[in-house]
Every structure is written in C-alpha cells, then in structure tokens.
Amino acid sequence: MVMARPTMSASLCEQMIGRGDRPLPGVVDGPGKETVEQRREAIAASAKPDCLVVDVSGNLGKHKLATAVDVLGGEVSDEIRVRAVKIAKASAVPVSVTEALEQANEELCREKEKAEFRRKLDAERRSRIKPTATYGYQWVSVFAEEYRNYSGAQHAGKARLTERQYAYLKRSGIDPSQMTYWRAVKEIERLSNAPATDKQKWVIAKHGGTVSAGLTKRDASKMIDQLMNKKQKGQQ
Fold first, then answer.
1. 7 CB-near residues (< 8 Å, 6+ apart)
2. Which of 104, 135, 177, 211 is the most exposed place for a label (fewest CB within 10 A)?
3. Dihedral of the alpha carbons of 178, 181, 184, 190, in degrees to the nearest 10
4. Based on the number of CB atoms within 10 Å of its own CB, is 172 exposed (0-12), middle (13-18) or buried (19 or more)?
5. Is residue 154 part of a domain?
6. Sequence-separated (6 or more) residues with CB below 8 Å from residue 148
7. What sign has the CA pseudo-torsion 68, 72, 76, 80?
8. Over 70: is that where the pLDDT of 151 sits?
9. CA distance 86 to 188
10. Which residues constitute the domain of residue 182?
11. Type and span of the H or E element at 88
12. What's the number of domains the chain is made of?
C-alpha cells in the first residue's frame, strides 16, 4: 500500500493504514477462529499474510500508529490526546496515562470556559458603547498660505486665490481671471495630481531624492521642499 496523501491528523493516518491491514473476507470468520492465535494462523495461511506500507508522504514521521494514549484514550478527541502527551513529557516523574488524559480534558474545558466568558464580556462591553460621530469638510491645498474652512456661510463670495495660487495657474497656461474661484481651486487640485514634471524629477534626483513611479506634482513639490530644508539645515 502506498501512502501518498499527507495529513496532520493522527486518526486519519491510522485509518489509512487500517485500510491496508484488513484481512481478506472470511479469513478470520467462522468456527475454529475464536481465539487470537487461531485468527493469526488463519491470516498467515491466507493469500494476504502481510501488508507492506510505502510512506512517500512522511506521515509516519509525524504520527505513530498507536501509543498508550491512543489505546487508553478511547473516544477522546485528538486535541486531548496531544495535550496529554505534552503533560506526560513535561513531567519529571512517570505519569499515569489515564491521569494525563483527565488533566488534559480538564485544562481544555477550563480554557474553553474562560474563552467563552471573555467573549460574552466583550460582547456586553460593546453593547454599552454608544458611538457618536461628527463630520465636516475642508478645502486643503499645498499652495494656500493657510488652510481655509469653506463650510461656513461667512466665506460666501469672499474667497480669493492667493498670489501663489494665481501665479501657479498662470505658469500652467491658465488665466484665473476668466474662472470662478471654485473652478480655479478644482483646476489646482487637478494639476497637483498630475504626474511630476521632468524638471521636478531632475531637481529631486540632483539633491539625492528617489523618484518613484507614479510621483505626482503635489508629492514632488513636497519632496523638493523637504530636500531644500534639509540642505539649508546642513549648511547652517
């Protein structure tokens, strides 16, 4: 029998081995085969006296076919068996397998009870939380001398472009005097998100910066300011 399916489950590994270890039908059935010795003799004399298992998946390197924990564990889960083995190995003196299984079961039950208690406690705390939220909006531009909050009615009809904003639009070939204020701000935002110019990339590279793919005019302008400030501090 070739075991080609890897598994982390010890019980599944045992099941696969067991499929190959089954005697042929009728070999151990019938009169004169009541004892273990009689059944062994019948298997040895049958057309299938043995079974060769070729493990190409490494399962038997991770699992043992049967241990005292497996035999005495009965119907306990694999989780309890693994915990019992760890308890036995951690003990400095010989440990009863039955006691190790009972201890493992008790430990897992306590851990599950604590986890369930924490889950209920967290759920109760969350149920008492009453979230609140406030919101507002703000026009933000790196070209403005200061951030301006345009959500209030006091700014209606009074907003003006800064000299720097006005000059930026003129350099970009746009006449702000022929545009409304809000249209001019939108145009600045659009231009700022455009790809960085070759000149900006050249300045960044000249001063030791890294030009990344997708660099925008806005980010390039910030990077240039940072490099210039760093250079001035170094000269001081």
1. 13, 16, 57, 59
2. 135
3. -150
4. middle
5. no
6. 138, 139, 155, 159
7. negative
8. no
9. 67
10. 159-192
11. helix 78-90
12. 4
Please check whether residue 163 is in contact with residue 145, taking contact to mean a CB–CB distance below 8 angstroms: no
- By CB neighbour count within 10 A (0-12 exposed, 13-18 middle, 19+ buried), where does 216 fall? middle
Q: Is residue 144 part of a domain?
A: no
DSSP reduced 3-state for 48: coil
Residue 124 phi/psi, 5° resolution? -70, -40
Domain contains 1: yes
The mean of the pLDDT values for the chain is: 81
Tokens coding 223 = 């990077």
- DSSP SS3 for 131: coil
Instruction: Return the structure tokens found at 199.
Output: 């000149």
Flag whether pLDDT at 173 surpasses 50: yes
Q: How far apart are CA 9 and CA 4, in angstroms?
A: 14
Task: Give the helix/strand (H/E) hosting 87.
Answer: helix 78-90
Residue 147 lies in a domain: no
Residue 83, token pair as written in the block: 């915990």
Rounded to 5, what percent of the chain is helix, strand, coil? Answer: 55, 5, 40
The pTM is what? 0.34
For residue 122, give both structure tokens. Answer: 């967290």
pLDDT tens digits, one per residue of 220-230: 888 888 888 87
Strands (E), 43-160: 54-55
* Domain end residue (candidates: 65, 82, 109): 65
